[in-house]
Amino acid sequence: MYELSIRRTLVKRAAFSLLARRDHSLYELSRKLQRKAFDPTDIDTVLAALCQEGLLNDQRFTENYIHSRRAKGYGPLRIQAELIARGIAQDLIEHQLKIIDNAWLEAVRKTWQKRFKNRLPQDGKSRAQQMRFLYYRGFTSEQIKQLFHSDD
Length: 152
Hints:
75% of the residues lie in helices and 0% in strands. It is an all-alpha fold. The chain has three domains: 2-56, Arc Repressor Mutant, subunit A; 59-97, Arc Repressor Mutant, subunit A (Orthogonal Bundle); 103-151. α1 (2-21) packs across α3 (40-52), α2 (26-35) packs antiparallel against α3 and α7 crosses α9 (141-151). The longest helix has 20 residues, at 2-21. The termini are far apart. The model has no long low-confidence stretch (mean pLDDT 92).
């Protein structure tokens, strides 16, 4: 019994150490603790307690992650893929991300302006380069088309 308490305290300390650096999803934190070779039962118990205490919350993590990545100029498709890789449920992503929201048009415009300084493409090669950059950043083809058609 005493050993069990010590093991769980070590898992909790490691979890707090990771959460002190940045917010994590439940899946992310679980994987990181597993890599430290903690017992899976202890990990599950500690993570359930952290969720219950409100210290670990996938919805809050998703909101903060979307806000942060959007502010850095990333589009909805890229953010969606990153959240899926972090173990966030698809329905939670869809609820928070709103890929077809018109606010993304402003985000794609700001990202384009920052990278290309409002220089419209002069030929097919430069247009393709600008479009590739925006695709890489995770914007949808519809959002990119609307950006270039509004500037024509």
